[in-house]
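Please check this protein record:
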Amino acid sequence: MLQNRIVGVRECSPKQVVKALLLINPSNPLGDIYSPELLLDIFSFCNEQNLHVIMDEVYALSVFNGSPEFYSTLKFPVLPNKNKVHVLYGISKDFGIAGLRIGAIHTRCKPLKNCLKQLSFFHDIPFPVMDIAAKFVDDLDWLKMYLSIYRQRISEKFKESIDYCKRMGLNVRDSSGGFFLWLDFRPRLPINLNTAPKGFLSAHQLALLIKIQLTLFGLGASFYTLSTGSDNIT
């Protein structure tokens, strides 16, 4: 499906130039974990199409107990075009410290590295922030303990959230990572979706969220879903 979409855009709309493919692994908003086999297929296809691949692994450690193992792009010994594969990571999600804006990009593309070096001159990370991050990243014993507790807690909370939403009559898509739910509101919508007035869905879904006391709501349309009434919450 992905290959067909990209090729279709290039064939039908020559002016819409596709330069790169951006992926999030584990996926946001679905929480899927891409298998090594699927990743290699994607890299091979992008190499054939002369596309860059930007892989965001910001949720790399936020995987549930019993889920498929997360396989980082950096673990592949060989890539079809290593100079066009770029990996992103930041500590704000996995460690729950959104206030510490620290991220990294791993790339072998020299023009991109040169560009980033120029930009980073104006966006240095403050030394106190770097010092805080370095201390807990260097403590391997603490990291092992933290990740064990963290994954157990997000697994438990995810199950609790699913059970609660199901009691509210909402279907929840199964997930393997991240901390968001993909909900199907259609069983609770008291109107034919094909004849719903503009703005009705978002208002009605928001009312349901207030009722179940959830805070961050993303309309499915924002994620280009093909199913009206399917939305994301965090």
